[in-house]
């Protein structure tokens, strides 16, 4: 995943979610991990897609124009 500053934002809830999944009805670790991963992977994929868009704005073929246009359109 391109650097976007989202590592801790993903890691903290992912760690909490893993702990909750493993602490839930004990005995079936595989089912707990499967449920955890069912939420983990889509969330990570969305964040990776957003990071890819920002990376393209910063260093893609239209850089820096796309990045400037993004900031110019931002409310501020």
TrEMBL record:
Top-level taxon of the source organism: Bacteria
Record-linked SUPFAM superfamilies: FAD/NAD(P)-binding domain
Name of the protein in its database record: FAD-binding domain-containing protein
Organism name: Streptomyces gougerotii
């Amino acid at each position: 995943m391109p650097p976007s500053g989202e590592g801790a934002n993903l890691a903290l809830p992912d760690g909490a979610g893993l702990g909750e999944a493993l602490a839930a009805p004990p005995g079936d670790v595989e089912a707990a991990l499967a449920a955890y991963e069912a939420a983990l992977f889509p969330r990570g994929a969305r964040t990776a897609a957003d990071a890819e868009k920002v990376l393209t704005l910063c260093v893609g073929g239209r850089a820096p124009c796309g990045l400037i246009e993004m900031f110019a359109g931002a409310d501020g």
